[in-house]
Design goal:
The structure holds 2 protein chains of 2 kinds.
Chain A (H helix, E strand, L loop, with lengths): L36 E4 L5 E6 L5 E9 L12 H9 L8 H10 L3 E6 L3 E9 L3 H13 L5 H20 L3 H12 L13 H6 L2 H11 L5 E7 L3 H12 L21 E7 L5 E9 L8 H12 L5 H9 L6 E7 L3 E11 L3 H18 L3 H14 L7 H14 L4 H4 L1 H7 L2 H11 L6 E7 L1 H4 L9 E5 L9
Parallel strand pairs in A: 2-6, 7-11, 7-12
Antiparallel strand pairs in A: 1-2, 3-5, 3-6, 4-5, 8-10, 8-11, 9-10
Helix pairs in contact in A: 1-4, 1-7, 3-8, 9-12, 9-16, 10-11
Chain B lengths: L4 H9 L5 H6 L12 E4 L5 E6 L5 E8 L13 H8 L11 H8 L3 E6 L4 E8 L3 H14 L4 H20 L2 H13 L13 H6 L2 H11 L5 E7 L3 H12 L22 E6 L6 E7 L6 H14 L5 H9 L5 E6 L7 E7 L6 H18 L3 H18 L3 H15 L8 H6 L3 H11 L5 E7 L4 H7 L3
Parallel strand pairs in B: 2-6, 7-11
Antiparallel strand pairs in B: 1-2, 3-5, 3-6, 4-5, 8-10, 8-11, 9-10
Helix pairs in contact in B: 5-10, 11-17, 12-13, 13-17
The chains are: A alpha+beta, B alpha+beta.
């Protein structure tokens, strides 16, 4: 979680490289994307190359449009299992040989799944750039999809959800939150499936997703690091050019309607000594023209350590280790949510305080010094988000995916500086829900809080061991 | 999973490289590495600066040589609690001002406490460097303990404990294992503190801690980023030279006696997936044995091609996940292997398979390919770890504080290069033996009586 102080040990696992031309004299937050070469192959695959030679490393991100939104109803987790099984043997290597090839070179290669895309991230020593391209293209063009590997991956995926339910509930709060907020809408379907839907997915489902969506015109490839662009461009053309375009339709999504009124999902975890709560409504999209103002307001409300929420729930009252808020930005508006946790006995006190703080945002907004404070914070903390190869590759892939230009980065500082009081007021009104309109999820000991939380709205109850993230 | 584990990741990152690659990793070939400069103020505070102008930002990490290792019954957890109080007001700035001023000027901060050290991290635009020195200096000189905040912060830490330990099965197992594996040494104390001590800390305990441990001669500051060393030293002179040196803190002298036989603990609490963990007494951070143990654990448990993953997860399906970690502190720490057992799975089977893999590597040693793999992973990790200003500050701190000299960071590759298959084999035989370990199992209660007995108060 953002903005929390404590035991969490800093991980130094940064990958990558630094942007040039960002002298302090240029002003805080004034980072510009390096110029990069873009190509579209005849099959529709888009390629962006950013040579950076500060260190002998190279990073790669491949996005494949489609993602879990293409999963059939009741078969959530299909795309996620495909992503998992694709790397369990591909090209000439079986699963073990494939892992050995990555790890023996000191490389890292992972597949991931999102609602709107799946993909590959890779990081290798520069001397192994050819191997990286070979392995990534094996995954995407020549996955083995062996039945035994599929069975194993599906079993492990189901067991891993059970393991997560035994661990820190913070990790699953968003899963329940999205499912409860977006019930009946595609964004409410679990990206990696749930225990019940995963059990229903077949290898044929997985193969169908592969055939329909992992196609040339769906790919965006970004490589950042220490390499020769002409050579790598040639290698990528040869490796990915043969992937034919798709003839299937892209999953279509309509914007979800906002929740009106409040409804409560109580997830019973007997013996829990804290209640973990999530309050959400439909927020804003990745390309929302007001996204910078929204992020600024969120910085003040729940996006940094001294935010209104953390000040009330942690700093002033000691009710929690941390309280945060944020926007999930997809092609259409995802969730805006508030999340925190507190000792079971102070559940109502903490939720009331979160709601009051949201009311105060709507009633009073914030003053000009606070606006300036938030601007400085956003500008000051922006350069480290584009410090590494991996960060840069992911950002450029994201821009290409959403049809955003380099301006999204290059004009960030200008957009932040332009936010004024009127924009703040407008943003609070349009993007931040009223405390009366919220989907609420509570994970905790239901026997101890069931009665008290009825005051927030009609309560639906389920057990954390139920094999889903949503009630029946 | 445990407080020191992530740290580890850096120790492992800097591990290993072939001789040819070791030359590549010399300071001169890292941007700015040949410009690292260190100066010790007359009061004993050492300041190390690594200029790196790629982004207009700075990472400042201040390391204090104090952690839960310095505690005793009655004040367990106070190092970490003190860490929280370092953000909560001075004689010149009211509670909250430190964070408000820093964030309003584009900066961000955090801190962490381990059994050995407490580290304060500031990340900020280079243009605000002097302000950050002012803020840091203020809390080093003038920390104050507002009674109201002393109480409310107790609630924050208790909440942190509930989240990280009490409501997380791995956190619970980890805490109980450490308390069992150490019978004499204070590594038995959980960093977060035992609940009754969280309830009992007093402002006078905090004041005593401040005097004894938060002295300039017990700290090292690392400043990495878009700065010039001379300018940083001028700021250090202006803001930090006035701190008075203090008598050296009481050293921790207790040594854990050799373990005389295997210890086993069983924890009963709601769990769909049982957990198994084993922890062996190993070596201290700077010891060569620790480098060897990193390589051994990497071969056993790092990545999908590792021996334990292949055997337990892929072949026998006896675990959902298996992993290793290694404590690296001032005193001998624990080497860990853990497994998440599938719902309805047999903990005993996972244990037997792990034992077989340990016996195999203790008997036959690693293959040349496995040693080469460990080296390549370390080389790539070395570069990855040093590519952010934060990563550099963390790496410098690790080597300066635990190995006695930040320059040893750049010697690490050669140390790893010297590790042989025989070293690895002998480490497996000498350390990973039953009499030297604690085995912990967390699983669902067999009966209702067990369930209530296993609840956390």
């Amino acid at each position: 979680m953002n903005g929390l102080k404590g035991l969490v040990i800093a991980s130094a696992a940064g990958l990558g490289l630094l942007l040039g031309g960002t002298a302090a004299a240029a002003g805080q937050g004034e980072v510009k994307l390096p110029a990069f070469e873009q190509t579209t192959l005849p099959n529709g695959t888009r390629i962006a190359l950013v040579p950076k030679r500060d260190t002998p490393l190279v990073d790669m991100v491949v996005l494949v449009r489609g993602g879990s939104l293409a999963d059939a109803p009741g078969r959530e987790g299909t795309a996620s299992l495909l992503a998992e099984v694709m790397q369990k043997g591909a090209g000439k290597r079986d699963a073990t040989q494939f892992a050995e090839a990555i790890e023996s070179a000191g490389g890292a290669l992972a597949v991931f799944t999102g609602a709107e895309s799946l993909g590959v991230t890779a990081s290798f020593l520069a001397r192994d750039t050819g191997l990286m391209i070979e392995l990534a293209s094996d995954v995407l063009l020549r996955p083995g999809l062996a039945p035994a590997e599929f069975d194993k991956a599906r079993t492990l995926a189901i067991q891993s959800i059970a393991a997560a339910k035994d661990s820190d509930p913070r990790a699953l709060l968003g899963e329940y939150g999205d499912a409860w907020l977006f019930r009946g809408h595609p964004y409410g379907r679990p990206v990696d499936g749930d225990e019940q839907s995963l059990a229903a997915v077949t290898l044929d489902d997985v193969k169908r997703h592969y055939a329909e969506h992992v196609r040339g015109d769906r790919l965006i490839i970004v490589v950042v690091g220490d390499f020769e662009p002409q050579s790598v461009k040639g290698q990528l053309e040869a490796a990915f050019g043969p992937l034919q375009p798709s003839s299937a339709a892209m999953p279509a999504v309509q914007p979800a309607s906002r929740v009106e009124g409040r409804r409560v999902l109580l997830v019973d975890k007997p013996g829990a000594t804290q209640t973990y709560f999530w309050l959400g409504n439909v927020g804003a999209s990745r390309t929302d023209p007001a996204r910078t103002a929204q992020s600024l307001v969120n910085t003040v409300f729940g996006g940094r350590f001294t935010s209104m929420l953390n000040t009330e729930l942690r700093i002033k009252s000691g009710l929690t280790y941390g309280a945060v808020s944020g926007f999930d930005r997809l092609s259409e508006p995802g969730a805006f949510s508030i999340a925190s946790f507190t000792e079971t006995g102070t559940t109502v006190q903490a939720i009331d305080l979160a709601l009051e703080t949201l009311d105060r945002l709507h009633a009073d907004g914030f003053d000009a010094p606070m606006l300036e404070s938030a601007k400085s914070y956003m500008l000051g903390q922006f350069p480290p988000t584009l410090e590494t190869n991996g960060q840069l590759a992911a950002r450029i892939a994201d821009l290409l995916f959403h049809g955003l230009g380099s301006d999204d980065v290059d004009r960030f500082a200008a957009r932040v500086s332009a936010v004024d009081g009127a924009a703040v007021r407008q943003t609070i009104k349009t993007a931040f829900p009223s405390s009366g309109d919220l989907a609420i999820v509570l994970i905790g000991d239901a026997a101890l809080i069931r009665e008290q939380v009825g005051k927030y709205g009609p309560v639906t109850e389920m057990r954390i061991t139920d094999p889903r993230f949503a009630p029946k | 999973m445990n407080h020191v584990a992530c740290w580890l990741s850096l120790g492992i990152l800097t591990a290993g490289a072939s001789l040819a690659q070791a030359a590549q990793a010399a300071p001169g070939t890292l941007p700015g590495a040949d410009q690292i400069v260190s100066r010790t103020l007359p009061n004993g505070l050492e300041v190390v600066v690594w200029p790196d102008h790629d982004i207009p930002n700075v990472a400042m990490y201040t390391w204090y040589r104090v952690g839960s290792r310095n505690e005793r019954p009655g004040i367990t957890g106070i190092s970490h609690y003190f860490e929280h109080m370092m953000f909560n007001g001075t004689k010149t700035r009211p509670p909250g001002e430190f964070d408000r001023v820093m964030e309003a000027n584009g900066g961000r901060n955090n801190a962490y406490t381990s059994p050995d050290v407490t580290v304060y991290q500031n990340w900020f635009p280079a243009s605000t460097t002097e302000l950050i020195f002012d803020l840091e200096s203020d809390r080093m000189h003038n920390l104050d303990f507002d009674p109201k905040v002393v109480e409310s912060e107790r609630g924050v830490v208790y909440s942190e404990r509930r989240a990280a330990i009490d409501n997380d099965n791995f956190g619970t197992l980890d805490e109980q294992m450490r308390a069992t594996a150490y019978i004499a040494h204070p590594y038995q104390i959980p960093v977060i503190g035992w609940p009754s001590d969280i309830e009992g800390w007093k402002a006078t305990d905090l004041e005593a801690y401040y005097r004894q441990y938060y002295a300039p001669n017990n700290a090292v500051m690392f400043v990495v980023g878009d700065v010039e060393p001379e300018a940083v030293f001028r700021l250090a002179d202006r803001y930090l030279a006035g701190l008075e040196a203090q008598p050296a803190p009481t050293p921790v002298t207790t040594k854990e006696p050799p373990q005389l036989g295997e210890r086993r603990i069983s924890i009963r609490r709601d769990a769909q997936t049982p957990l198994l963990a084993m922890a062996w007494h190993a070596a201290a951070a700077p010891d060569r044995e620790t480098r060897v143990m990193e390589v051994l654990l990497s071969i056993l448990g790092d990545g999908n091609s590792s021996r334990l993953h292949q055997r337990l997860v892929e072949q026998e399906r006896a675990a959902v996940q298996v992993g290793t970690s290694l404590d690296q502190g001032f005193d001998p720490g624990l080497a860990w292997i853990y497994a998440v057992v599938p719902p309805g799975g047999e903990v005993g089977k996972a244990e037997k398979l792990i034992d077989e893999e340990i016996a195999r590597i203790a008997r036959d040693g690693p293959t040349p390919a496995e040693l080469a793999k460990a080296r390549n992973q370390a080389l790539a990790g070395f570069w990855r770890g040093l590519q952010t200003i934060s990563g550099k500050a963390q790496a410098l701190g690790t080597y300066e504080v635990f190995h006695g000299d930040y320059r040893k960071l750049f010697e690490a590759p050669a140390v790893y290069e010297s590790i042989t298959a025989d070293d690895v084999k002998q480490a497996a035989a000498a350390v990973l033996r039953p009499a030297n370990r604690t085995v912990g199992v967390l699983e669902a209660p067999a009966t209702t009586a067990d369930a209530s007995a296993g609840e956390t108060p």
